[in-house]
Amino acid sequence: MDDKTVQKLRERIVSNTALGAPVFEIRWRTVLEDFKKWESSPIGQAASALTAQLELLRRLCETFPEDDLRSDEEILRVCLKIQIT
Fold first, then answer.
1. Is the pLDDT higher at 77 or at 83?
2. E-only strand ranges, 10-81
3. To the nearest 5 percent, what fractions of the chain are helix, strand and coil?
4. Does an H or E element contain 52, and which?
5. Quick check: 9 and 41 in contact, CB under 8 A?
6. Per-residue pLDDT for 83 more than 70?
């Protein structure tokens, strides 16, 4: 996932979360590090782009359950790179 997409996701989650900055930053770094490890693993390298996007969304939703990211159309649009009409 490119840096621009990651930054958009971060900005959107920060704008909606009630977490304090230190807690958010720890969770954010952890989810990105874990996702990058997955992405570079044999499974991640063999995965399609859509599978990788869904995996990142799954990890974000598990990491920030209090923010209900699955209901946020902007998060879905940015993460899955789709147009929701």
1. 77
2. none
3. 80, 0, 20
4. helix 49-63
5. no
6. no
Which residue in this structure is represented by tokens 């490119």?
2
39-71 tens-digit pLDDT: 999 999 999 988 999 999 999 999 999 888 889
Residue whose entry in the numeric block shows the structure tokens 């782009």 = 49
E strands in 28-79: none
| Residue type (1 letter), 27 | R
Q: Which residues 6+ apart lie within 8 Å of 76 measured at CB? A: 57, 70, 82, 84
Location of structure tokens 């990491």: 63
Put simply, whether the predicted model's pTM sits higher than 0.70 gets the answer yes
